From TrEMBL, chain B:
Protein origin, superkingdom: Bacteria
Protein name: EamA-like transporter family protein
Keywords (A to Z) from UniProt: Membrane, Transmembrane, Transmembrane helix
Ranges annotated as spanning the membrane: 36-54, 66-86, 117-135
GO cellular component, one term: plasma membrane
A Pfam entry, by short name: DMT_YdcZ
InterPro entries in alphabetical order: YdcZ
PANTHER family referenced in this protein's UniProt entry, alphabetically: INNER MEMBRANE PROTEIN YDCZ
Amino acid sequence: MSHERPPSPVEDVPAPARPLEIVAALGTGGLLTLMLLSNSTMAAHTTPLFSSLTAHAVGSIIAALALCAVWLLRGTARALPRQNRAPLWAYLGGLSGALTVMLTSTSANSALALTGTLAIGLAGQVVLALVFDLFGAMGLERRRPRKQDLIALLAIIAGALLIILARGLGA
Amino acid sequence: MSVMILLAFLGGALVTLSRQINGRLAVETSALQSSFWNHFVGFAALAAVTVLAGSFWPEGAATAPWLAWIGGALGVAFVASGSWLVPRLGAAMTGGLLVAGQMLSGVVLDLVRGADAILWMQLAGVALILAGVILSRR
């Protein structure tokens, strides 16, 4: 995190994604596959609600332990600077995540099935992300995607839809 | 049916929303703190729903394999990483690349487990995604 990007003017074209960030994102996506495998195993044994509840409980404990470890290693003096200017709503991202489980487990059990839920969810995810970037939502940087970024996104979405369909039709 | 389509669409949109909010918190604090609050607040909300639903310990919980319990630990790294990436890559590129990684690893998992899926569609999907990732680089 030592490499800060120079501040760019509002509505500037975004700097292209750098290799480290791309590799991190791809690896994190891989983590998501394992996480969903784990959570869906729990949901199959119990309920989607219980699965999400335990995942958040275990996550809270692990994150708290990790924070303690970071603070111990860095020393508490450095860990508690008066940097905390985050508005209250910035702490509520977890509400949205908790709600996601309710919505998707409902639609996955309808005629849409998992395939339809994933495909339509992908659309919802990308459409809102583009809007957020254009407006700089939640106080993050505004950015207009380059044409090349849009083509890249389109290729990724098309590929993802093919893979989702490959499962839905093959099962 | 159209209600279900709306729910599925909103489910995806909420993923982007929570990542944007968590990304903002990470800018002000740290990616790990953001991940902690995400899980803690989410837990509180789900605990409230659980109380309303009145089922605290479903039958299968005791017999669930260890694999079923580690999702939360993976989630900590997932949310922390997403919160770190969003301010750097933007919401669209972060979402796109996370989906790319999810799909590529998903195909590998499917192949390893011998899951039923149409192979040529999977391979075409992988090729498209790799092309997209390469395009996002320059």
